[in-house]
Amino acid sequence: MAVGSVSSTGCVMHLGPSLGILGVPIPVTTYQQKQKEDRFWEHERYDRVPILGPITSGAEIVALDPPSDDEVMRALEKAQPVEGGIPLLYERNRNNVRVVKEKIADYVDPPRFYPLIGPAQQHHAHYKCTVYYEDVRRIGWPMPHTLRDEDAREVIYVDHNHLHMVGNVDTGQGSPYGPSAAALPQ
After folding, report:
1. pLDDT tens string 127-150
2. Which of 33, 67, 146, 175 could serve as a FRET partner for 88 with CA atoms 20 to 30 Å apart?
3. Domain coordinates of the chain in residue numbers?
4. CA separation for the pair 150, 166 (Å, rounded)
C-alpha cells in the first residue's frame, strides 16, 4: 500500500489532459519582462482617449489633469534613453530631477462624427514640460573619470486629448438600437 501511494502522488500519474511540449515552462529574461510591463503600463495609463460627457453651456472649459511626472520621465526616456550602460565602462545617471509643467494651449475642436463613438468634440491640451537635472556620466576606460553637468535641462512637449460627447447622449439604458428603435414599425 505504501509503494502504491508513493508512486501515484505528484506529477508521476495524472488522469487529466496533458499539454505535451506546451507544458514545459519557457524562461523569460528580466529585460523582456520589464519591456512587456512598461508597454502595458503605458497602454493602461497614457495611450487611451477618455470620452467625457457633453460640455455644458456657460461652464468653464478646462482640460483634464496635467501630465504626471511619470509620464514626463517616460517621454524623456524615449527621447534620450539613460537605462542600460556597461558597469565600470560607461554609465549615465540623472540625479536631482525637477519637473516644471506649463500649459501652452487649451482648446476644443468643432463637433464632428467619430466612427464607433458618434458626434463628439475633441479637447486639446498642450503642455511644455521642462526637466531640470544633474547629468552624471561615469567613464571607466581608457582612463576612469566622471563628467558632471549640474545645469542640464530638457524640454518635452506633452499633448493630452480627450473627447466630449455632443447632443443628446444615449446612456445605453434603453434599446440597443437607440432611443427611437422602439417606435420603428416591425
Report:
1. 999 999 999 999 998 899 999 999
2. 33
3. 34-172
4. 50
